[in-house]
Design brief:
The chain is an alpha+beta fold and 598 residues long. It has helices spanning 4-27, 32-54, 60-70, 77-88, 97-103, 105-115, 117-120, 144-170, 173-198, 208-226, 231-241, 261-266, 279-282, 287-294, 339-393, 399-427, 439-456, 475-491, 523-528, 550-560, 588-597, and strands at residues 124-130, 137-142, 246-250, 256-259, 298-303, 314-322, 328-337, 434-438, 460-463, 470-474, 498-506, 509-516, 565-570, 574-582. A five-stranded antiparallel beta sheet has the order 4-3-7-6-5, sandwiched between helices. The protein has a five-stranded mixed beta sheet with strand order 9-11-12-14-13. The relative contact order is 0.05.
Length: 598
C-alpha cells in the first residue's frame, strides 16, 4: 500500500482538528477576533480536505478538481490570519471596511486566476503528472500570478510576525506564554509551505496542510490553558445576567477588552475602536472610575461618575474575572443605575423632615392656643356673666362692658386670622405669586385698616413713601407684613405717639422702615425676638394681647419674597423695624418713559 493513503488519512484528521477549532470559535463569535480566527481556520479546512483527496487522485482532471476546492481557502488564509493578528495585538482600529476590501484585492485576483488558468496560463504555466513517489502527483510550473500570490502572502506573514514579536517584548510576564503560543502556532500554516517551496526535504508532497495540525495543537493549548480568546466571553456571560447594567471588561494590564451596549450609552466616547487601549486613555474624563479600575476589587454606592449635578447616580462595582482554575485573568467594572432609588430616598427624607416640622408646629400651635386663645375667651365669659348680673340688678347701660367685649372679640378674631394665615404658610397652602406693586398704595390700604385702632390711642400714622415706588412681591404676603408691623407699632406705642413709614431704594432692593415712639425693646427681648420660631406674646401699652405669631409671619414671608428683616430699638424711645423687598426687573425710569410714550 502506497503511503499516500496514510497521508490522506492524516490530512482528514487535520481537517477534523481544524473543524473543531472552527466550532470553538463559532461558540465565541460575540468576540470579533474569534470570527477572524475561525474564518482563517476554515480556509485551512478547504486546503487540507482538498489535498487529502488530491494525493489519492489518479488522473490530472481529478487533481484539477481538488485543487479548485483547495483554492476556495488558500488565497484568503493569509489575509484573515493578518486581520486576526491586528485584533490580537491591539491594532483593530486599522480594520475598516475599505482596508479589508483593499487587503482582499490580491486574494480575489488569485482566486479568479486559478479558476480561469486554462484560458491564460498566468497562474500555472503547465500541469503534468509525476509518479516518482509511486503514485500520481501533480508537477506545476508556476506563473507570474502565482508568484504574486506567494509574495503577497509572505509580506503579510512577515508584518504579522513582527507585530507578535513586538507584543511579546512589551508584554508582562503573565502574558508572555500566551503570546509565545501564538507565535509558535502561527509558524505552522506558513512555515511548512516555506519548507515545501524551498525544496529542503526533496519530496513532492506539499506539507502545508500539516501545518494546520501543528498550529491547531498550539492554539488548543492557548485556548484551554491560558484562556486565549476566552476572557471577553466569560464577561459577556455575566452581562446577560444583568443586561440593564453597564459592564466593562479589562485585562490585568488595565487594557479595555470589551463592553456592552449599556456601557456605550453611559460612558461618553466609548466606542469599539477603543478596545485594546489602556484604561487611562479611555477613561481620562472619568477620574473616579479610573481610580476604581486601578485599585483592587471594591464597591461604592450612589456616585455621579463625572461629577455633574444633573448626572444619574450609580453603584460602581469592580470584580475579578477568574478562569476554571480560579486564576485571575481580568477585571469587570459594573455600573448599576440607582438614580430612582436615590431620588426616592431623598423624597422620603424630605417627607420625613416635613412631617417632623409639622409635628413640631402642631405642638407649638397647641401651646399658642393654650396661652393666647384661652385668656381672651375666659375674659369674654366673665364679662358676659357680669353683664347678665348687672342687667338683672338694674336697667343701667353697660357701654364700658360692651366696648370691652367688642375689643376682646376683635382680638380673638385677629388671633384666629393670624393662626389661619400661619397654618396655611406652614402647610404650603399659600401660593407664592410675586407681582409688581406700588408700595405707597399698599401702605395706604393698610393704614386705613388700622385707623380705628390708632385713633383709639390717638396715635398719628404718617407715610413718607411717594407714589410710583414699585416693588416686586406677593400681594397677600406684602399686605400681611405691613399690617403686622403696623399692628405691633400701635400695640407698643403710648397714647399720643406717632408711627412713621419710609422707603429707600438700595441697589435692587427697597428698604422699608416702620418707626414708632413706643416703649422700645429690652435687651433680653432683642436677643431672641426674630430668632424664635414661636415667640411668646407680650401685652401692649393699653393691655392689648397678641397671638405671638406676627413677627414670625413677617420673617417667613419676607424671606419667601427674597428679602430680610431686622430692627433697631432704644428702650423708652421707640423702635424701627426694617425689611427689604426686591424691586421689579426693569428700572422705574424705563417704566415711566414707557407710560409717557403711551
Amino acid at each position: 500500500m502506497n503511503y499516500n493513503l496514510y497521508l490522506s488519512v492524516l490530512l482528514i484528521a487535520a481537517t477534523c482538528c481544524s473543524l473543531v477549532m472552527c466550532y470553538l470559535s463559532w461558540k465565541r463569535r460575540e468576540l470579533p477576533i474569534a470570527i477572524s480566527y475561525g474564518l482563517a481556520l476554515l480556509t485551512g479546512v478547504f486546503y487540507s480536505f482538498g489535498y487529502a483527496f488530491e494525493v489519492v487522485s489518479e488522473t490530472l482532471e481529478q487533481i484539477r478538481f481538488w485543487l479548485r476546492i483547495e483554492y476556495i481557502g488558500i488565497p484568503f488564509g493569509p489575509v484573515l490570519w493578518f486581520i486576526m493578528l491586528l485584533q490580537y495585538t491591539g491594532y483593530q482600529s486599522f480594520i475598516r471596511k475599505w482596508v479589508v476590501a483593499l487587503l482582499m484585492a490580491i486574494p480575489m485576483v488569485t482566486f479568479t486566476a486559478h479558476y480561469t488558468n486554462e484560458w491564460h496560463h498566468l497562474f500555472y504555466k503547465s500541469m503534468t503528472l509525476n509518479e516518482s513517489e509511486g503514485f500520481p502527483l501533480v508537477s506545476l510550473v508556476k506563473g507570474p500570478l502565482y508568484q504574486l500570490h506567494i509574495a503577497y502572502s509572505y509580506i503579510l506573514i512577515v508584518i504579522g510576525m513582527g507585530l507578535l514579536i513586538q507584543m511579546y517584548r512589551k508584554a508582562k510576564p503573565h502574558m508572555k506564554k500566551q503570546i509565545a503560543l501564538m507565535l509558535i502556532g502561527s509558524c505552522g500554516p506558513f512555515g511548512f509551505p516555506l519548507l515545501y517551496l524551498s525544496g529542503v526535504f526533496g519530496v513532492s508532497i506539499d506539507l502545508s496542510p500539516f501545518g494546520f495540525v501543528f498550529s491547531g495543537i498550539f492554539y488548543m493549548l492557548g485556548i484551554y490553558h491560558f484562556d486565549m480568546l476566552k476572557l471577553a466571553p466569560l464577561a459577556l456571560r455575566k452581562v446577560f445576567e444583568s443586561i440593564q447594567d453597564a459592564v466593562i471588561v479589562f485585562d490585568l494590564d488595565h487594557n479595555l477588552i470589551s463592553f456592552n451596549d449599556s456601557a456605550h450609552r453611559v460612558i461618553e466616547g466609548l466606542h469599539k475602536k477603543e478596545v485594546g487601549h489602556p484604561a487611562i486613555e479611555v477613561f481620562s474624563r472619568y477620574p473616579l472610575l479610573l481610580e476604581r479600575i486601578m485599585q483592587e476589587p471594591s464597591s461604592v454606592s450612589k456616585v455621579q461618575i463625572s461629577g455633574r449635578a444633573d448626572e444619574p447616580f450609580y453603584n460602581v462595582q469592580l470584580s475579578l474575572i477568574r478562569n476554571n482554575k480560579e486564576m485571575p485573568v481580568g477585571k469587570m467594572l459594573r455600573l448599576s443605575d440607582v438614580t430612582e432609588v436615590v431620588r426616592a430616598e431623598d423624597r422620603l427624607l424630605d417627607n420625613a423632615r416635613q412631617l417632623s416640622e409639622l409635628n413640631t408646629f402642631k405642638d407649638k400651635m397647641f401651646n399658642v392656643v393654650a396661652h393666647d386663645i384661652r385668656d381672651p375667651l375666659a375674659v369674654l365669659v366673665n364679662l358676659m356673666e357680669l353683664m347678665e348680673d348687672e342687667m338683672q340688678a338694674c336697667g343701667e347701660k353697660h357701654e364700658e362692658i360692651v366696648h370691652e367685649m367688642g375689643q376682646q372679640i376683635q382680638n380673638t378674631f385677629t388671633l384666629v386670622e393670624s393662626l389661619l394665615d400661619w397654618f396655611r404658610s406652614q402647610r404650603g397652602g399659600m401660593v407664592f405669586k410675586p407681582i409688581e406693586r406700588d408700595l405707597a398704595i399698599t401702605v395706604q390700604t393698610s393704614l386705613r385698616l388700622m385707623i380705628v385702632r390708632s385713633e383709639g390711642k390717638h396715635i398719628q400714622m404718617i407715610s413718607e413713601i411717594p407714589r410710583d415706588t414699585f416693588v416686586y412681591a406677593d400681594k397677600e404676603m406684602l399686605d400681611l407684613i405691613i399690617r403686622n408691623l403696623l399692628s405691633n407699632a400701635i400695640k407698643f406705642t403710648d397714647y399720643g405717639g406717632s408711627i412713621r413709614l419710609k422707603a429707600e431704594r438700595i441697589s435692587d432692593k427697597m428698604i422699608v422702615s416702620v418707626s414708632d415712639t413706643g416703649e422700645g425693646i429690652s435687651a433680653d427681648q432683642a436677643n431672641s425676638l426674630l430668632q424664635e420660631a414661636y415667640p411668646v406674646s407680650s401685652a401692649g401699652t393699653a393691655g392689648e394681647r397678641g397671638v405671638g405669631l406676627g413677627l414670625t409671619l413677617c420673617r417667613e414671608f419676607v424671606r419667601l419674597n427674597g428679602g430680610d428683616i431686622w430692627f433697631d430699638s432704644v428702650p423708652s424711645q421707640g423702635s424701627t423695624f426694617y425689611f427689604s423687598i426686591p424691586t421689579p426687573p426693569e428700572a422705574p425710569s424705563i417704566r415711566s418713559s414707557l407710560k409717557g410714550a403711551m
